[in-house]
Amino acid sequence: MSKGFVQGCVLFFFFFIGIFLIEGAEKPTFSAASTDGRLLISLPRIISFDPHPSIAEFQGDIAYRGSRVTGSVEFLEKWETKGENPCLKEIGFKIKLLKNGAEFQNFEFPLKQLETKKIKKGGMLAESKSGDLGVNIVLDHSQVIGKTLTGISFTVNLFDFGTEETSQLEETSVPPVPSTTMASSSTLPSPQTVGNVLEFAFRFSRKADALPDKNASTKIMLYKQALSVVPSSETSKEAQDFIQETTDKIASLKRGLPSGPRSVVASAPVASTGYSEKHVPSVEVKNLYDSAKKLFAKNQEPEARDLLRKALEKDPLFYEGWVLLGKNAFSNRKYSKAGEAFEKAVSLRDDDSDSGLYYFKSAYYLGETEKGLEKLIGMVKRYPQSNSSKIALGEAYFQAANLPLCEEMCVSIIQNDPENVQAKKLLERAREKMR
């Protein structure tokens, strides 16, 4: 064996070790957050090439050192669109924490390249620590087509490493995805008292009860969700008490007053407000609509939209016209116009879960997630036996990254319809991302 060969092997060995050490040094280790830090709040998020809000707020206040803190996360993304599927090449984050409306802490993570081979479930996308506060961002799932990274889901976690005693505010803080084992309301019977039929309604109600009244819109949304899953066939006194008390809480929140129990009076069923009768458009309107469809098929969209608008000007109650106009606007990412069209469609047929889901997606991409959820919650409330409306709401919860509520909606469907394939598949997707 020649001396040169031996020297070459030695050099290669040290070169390899050097590369290994460099790569190892670049890998983040946030073990302290996992063992010593106290989790303050988490924010799950799903990102794909579809337009979506670039900033998300932590849901609920953060109890820290006797004060309530709010926070937001800005997502920095770099996409490559050369191939058939858009590829997420780089990602970064900006996290801001505010106390009494003033920024007091921030974490910035500049754009960092993502490599399909290296990113794995449970891996760290970013991490940092400043004083007593620390943050890590953990990958939950990656969507890969071929060798192209087309989307990811992750969770932003905020930790407290301090030892200072906090105030009682800490005991009432609620993370964005509250546990379904939260203590029940003192004024309502437990689910065991009335059986499984009201179990999911009580879960939603307890989540709302645990939130502070300053989060009124979120509380109202959860209370409405609780009402929506109460079967219309349930006429027990416990169910009627629950319905009335929850209705009173919603009314109290809307008036800006503290929510609390009031006297129980049986509530009347919610009536449908949609355009229930079959509407028949005129021959002229139908011809304009058919001509618009043909032009859309030929990719002559401006001319098609012009004909469609003329049809709707002549007949504003033409449901099919609003749906077609909304779908075209949505496909062109004109989400404001799409939302207006689908809102009109739902006003004409208030059981149209497809248009309701399109409305939610339009609102979501405009950063108005709660507004979109409200529309679907109202639909489920009007038609509590409609699985299509519940599936649409479950899909909306999934897209909004509210996976526990998505899970509960699916389970409530499967309890009454064990063979519902859509609910089973959606439940499987939700639980996969929650692992």
If you had to describe this structure to a student in words, what would you say it looks like?
There is one protein chain. Helix 6 runs antiparallel to helix 7 (237-254). The chain has helices spanning 3-26, 31-35, 169-172, 191-194, 199-210, 216-228, 237-254, 283-297, 301-314, 319-331, 335-348, 353-365, 369-382, 387-399, 403-416, 421-434, and strands at 38-48, 55-57, 62-64, 67-80, 87-99, 102-113, 124-130, 133-145, 148-160. The chain is α+β, with helices and mostly antiparallel strands. The radius of gyration is 26 Å and the shape is globular. It folds into three domains: 31-171, no CATH class; 177-254, no CATH class; 317-434, Serine Threonine Protein Phosphatase 5, Tetratricopeptide repeat (Alpha Horseshoe). The longest helix has 24 residues, at 3-26.
